[in-house]
């Protein structure tokens, strides 16, 4: 029987509405500082959404040469920047520590190059197909984050992309974990990226009635709070270097934590509403836990999906109660989307970074704006203030439109 390899995280990179690096993002998270502000990307006068979690003063020139930039949609640019940061953080030299053929890229996105799509459609309307940019196709398609990251890094191993709505980033990490476990790669740069703050991206969520119409950015996103009225859209990217434990030890790498459990299942119920009672999420958490050989009360912290929509927060609370049983009221749980907004395909990746930093630093980020808890959401959602606590095991949940339920479990490394 082939021995399954252990998989650790040795590097992390991010560009988020809260900061243009992991360090800046984490400092804001621990201080409970939101990245949500007025929506400035386009004129939103006629839109019900007035707020968004936009990147701020992000300078691409450190990561991508100017002559290559116009060939990438914003979502691919963010992915490249986060991935370069992650590989740099891991102090990993491709070709020296790991051969290019043994390092892969696995990147998720929910929507892909929607900004480029809208621009191309406008060009088509104005001047026919001859008016289109020659790279109109390759800026739009969802695999371009993975493709551009692999080109930027010179990573020639597994190269693929996950498109699973809001679970995309989490699944990219989980599937990379499986590939390294099986010995198909020594390391994979995995994560998620999104840049859908456009008239169509935001307008579609407005039409669905899923987006907050609160015009005060500071309080617009309020997971588990009685006054919540929908999600706030965010953008950005998170990237993690997943590496076999053997490879990490061989090069004496710093290790943030180990990934020890992963499961992804479908509701087979409805395209936007979670299954009643969060039935699919319960199964995902149980399967992920089963793999770890731990008990449910070994979990020290849960990073919830927590979107600030009426349905998600209620069903997720029910799922956590069913999964954790009497332990549900004793484990700290938080929704970092209260600060990042909903980063869609990037959410699961950035939340995995928060989960690992909770282990690495012994700090649990808060759920901000939780002032008037929904009586149906009565667990310990770490309201408004970060909490110091020794954290060894973290569960991170990601749920996506279409009925996708994903659970990842991380642990402090013990050799």
TrEMBL record:
Enzyme class of the recorded protein, top EC level: transferase
InterPro entries per record: 3-oxoacyl-ACP_synth-2, Beta-ketoacyl_synthase, Ketoacyl_synth_C, Ketoacyl_synth_N, PKS_Beta-ketoAc_synthase_dom, Thiolase-like
Gene3D superfamilies: 3.40.47.10
Any single biological process term in GO: fatty acid elongation
Enzyme active site: 166
A molecular function (GO) term: 3-oxoacyl-[acyl-carrier-protein] synthase activity
E.C. no: 2.3.1.179
Keyword Lipid metabolism included in the entry's annotation: yes
Functional pathway: Lipid metabolism; fatty acid biosynthesis
Domain Ketosynthase family 3 (KS3): 4-412
Assigned keywords, A-Z: Acyltransferase, Fatty acid biosynthesis, Fatty acid metabolism, Lipid biosynthesis, Lipid metabolism, Transferase
Cellular component, GO annotation: cytosol
One Pfam family recorded for the sequence: ketoacyl-synt
Catalytic function, reaction form: a fatty acyl-[ACP] + malonyl-[ACP] + H(+) = a 3-oxoacyl-[ACP] + holo-[ACP] + CO2; (9Z)-hexadecenoyl-[ACP] + malonyl-[ACP] + H(+) = 3-oxo-(11Z)-octadecenoyl-[ACP] + holo-[ACP] + CO2
Keyword Transmembrane: no
Homology family: Belongs to the thiolase-like superfamily. Beta-ketoacyl-ACP synthases family.
Function text: Involved in the type II fatty acid elongation cycle. Catalyzes the elongation of a wide range of acyl-ACP by the addition of two carbons from malonyl-ACP to an acyl acceptor. Can efficiently catalyze the conversion of palmitoleoyl-ACP (cis-hexadec-9-enoyl-ACP) to cis-vaccenoyl-ACP (cis-octadec-11-enoyl-ACP), an essential step in the thermal regulation of fatty acid composition.
Protein name stated in the entry: 3-oxoacyl-[acyl-carrier-protein] synthase 2
Organism expressing this protein natively: Aneurinibacillus migulanus (Bacillus migulanus)
Origin organism lineage: Bacteria, Bacillati, Bacillota, Bacilli, Bacillales
């Amino acid at each position: 029987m082939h021995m399954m390899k252990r998989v650790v995280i040795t590097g992390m990179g991010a560009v988020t509405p809260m900061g243009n690096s992991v360090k800046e993002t984490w400092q804001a998270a621990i201080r409970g500082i939101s990245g949500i502000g007025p929506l400035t990307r386009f004129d939103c006068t006629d839109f019900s959404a007035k707020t968004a979690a936009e990147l701020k003063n992000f300078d691409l020139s450190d990561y991508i040469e100017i002559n290559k930039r116009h060939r990438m949609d914003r979502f691919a640019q963010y992915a490249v920047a986060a991935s370069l940061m992650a590989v740099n953080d891991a102090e990993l030299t491709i070709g020296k520590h790991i051969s290019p053929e043994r390092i892969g890229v696995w990147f998720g996105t929910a929507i892909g190059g929607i900004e480029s799509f809208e621009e191309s459609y406008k060009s088509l309307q104005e001047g026919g197909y001859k008016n289109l940019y020659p790279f109109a196709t390759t800026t739009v398609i969802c695999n371009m984050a993975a493709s551009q990251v692999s080109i930027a890094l010179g990573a020639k191993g597994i190269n693929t992309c996950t498109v699973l709505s809001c679970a995309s980033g989490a699944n990219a990490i989980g599937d990379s974990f499986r590939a390294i476990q099986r010995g198909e790669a020594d390391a994979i740069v995995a994560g998620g990226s999104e840049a859908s703050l456009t008239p169509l991206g935001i307008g579609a969520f407005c039409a669905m009635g899923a987006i907050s119409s609160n015009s005060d950015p500071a309080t617009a996103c309020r997971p588990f709070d009685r006054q919540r009225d929908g999600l706030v859209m965010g953008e950005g990217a998170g990237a993690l270097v997943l590496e076999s434990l053997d490879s990490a030890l061989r090069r004496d790498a710093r290790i943030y934590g180990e990934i020890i459990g992963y499961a992804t299942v479908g509701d087979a119920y409805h395209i936007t509403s979670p299954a009643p009672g969060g039935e699919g999420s319960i199964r995902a958490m149980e399967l992920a836990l089963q793999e770890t050989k731990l008990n449910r009360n070994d979990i020290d912290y849960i990073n919830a999906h927590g979107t600030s929509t009426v349905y998600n927060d209620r069903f997720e609370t029910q799922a956590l109660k069913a999964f954790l049983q009497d332990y549900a009221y004793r484990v700290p749980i938080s929704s970092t989307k209260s600060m990042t907004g909903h980063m869609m395909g990037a959410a699961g990746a950035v939340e995995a970074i928060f989960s690992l930093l909770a282990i690495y630093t012994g700090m649990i980020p808060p759920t901000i704006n939780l002032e008037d808890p929904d009586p149906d959401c009565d667990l310990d959602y770490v309201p408004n203030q970060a909490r110091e606590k020794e954290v060894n095991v973290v569960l991170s949940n990601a749920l996506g439109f279409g009925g996708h339920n994903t659970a990842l479990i991380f642990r402090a490394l013990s050799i």
